[in-house]
Amino acid sequence: MKILCICPIGIGNYILCYPAFHRIKQAMPHAQLHLLALREGIAQLAGNDSLWDGVEVFDPHTLRGFFRKAGAIVYLRRKKFDVSINFFPSNTWQYSFLPFVAGIGRRYAFKYRKFGIRTLSFLNTNKLKVNPELHDLQQNYAIAGLFLKRDLKTDAHVFPVLYSQPDHQWGSYYFQSASQHKIRIAVHPGSSIERGMDAKQWDPKRFAQLADRLCYYLNADAFIFGGPEEEHIKDIVAKHMRMPSHVVTPLPLNRTAAMLSMCSLCLCNDSGLMHIAASEGVPTIGIFGPTDEKRNGPVGPKTLVVRKPMKGFPVWTAHNVGKRRLPRTINPRASLEALTPEDAWEQVEPWLVKTFPDSNPPPHA
Prior knowledge:
By secondary structure, the chain is α/β, with parallel strands linked by helices. The protein has helices at 11-27, 40-46, 66-79, 93-101, 136-148, 165-178, 204-218, 231-240, 253-261, 272-279, 293-296, 334-338, 341-355; strands at 2-7, 32-37, 54-57, 83-86, 106-111, 126-129, 184-188, 221-224, 245-247, 265-269, 284-287, 303-306. The protein folds into 2 domains: 2-148, Rossmann fold (3-Layer(aba) Sandwich), CATH 3.40.50.2000; 165-355, Rossmann fold (3-Layer(aba) Sandwich). Strands 3-2-1-4-5-6 form a 6-stranded parallel β-sheet. The protein has a 6-stranded parallel β-sheet with strand order 9-8-7-10-11-12, with helices on both faces. It is globular.
């Protein structure tokens, strides 16, 4: 049997899908498991993973023009997949249309609460109703369980290995060259900006103030991560920090993942780097505003979600997956704009005491 696993676009999505991918392979070791990546970056992360018998790419950003897209569809048809599975969240028409035109006979997908006709969900042959109370990771276990016809235990998660030993050695050398401090805090003040997702970004000046307090508490250096499009945000954070900070040049994701794994703590907006750090077992603080931590908060026992409680927030939940447009009267940034560094510290400090019981913070940290 040839199974095509269709992964949503984000790095965080891939990480939250991966435990379900692994369970399918574990249950059907002789099946051919292929990944359909909708972004080149996901394909690069998955390319050397022995879980996959093949990694296919259908990235609308690089497949420009009708004929290139048609050629990619013909390529998928020639693969003759028996089954496709749309993992969560995948509530746009492309997710339903692509496996249908690729000639895949059994097409598993979620039944979302809204936008059924517009998203062509009727093209799917086997559908599972979205449970709005579940985290994305649990949703993905559920769709894998529907395919496997069994309930899957979700007490232990297998996440992807995102870096090699040489990547780890490179990161270790980078840290040693930058600072003699062995306690490092990874700071990621950016996030994806696709489809209005820049609304997830907390004010970088406030980010700097919280990062300062964390570094002071743990006697740590801050290393500020982000891609090329986030350079200006990183520079603002560094400029407004008083504790030692280092702006990390944009790196390939494998090296970024290796460096995150060597940090004592990670402070992020809701982003792919947040999920990478949490999946590595690094204590992780996620700053949340318009998105719903019940859906996609960081996974693990050493994680904390910080948000400003506000009526009407979060605005993007499992109830409206696929819909980003909001009424003009709703500002998706409102709860983050209301979150002060003092508000955040009130939530962070008790977690620090519990997570780092052996630390010896200076007075008035």
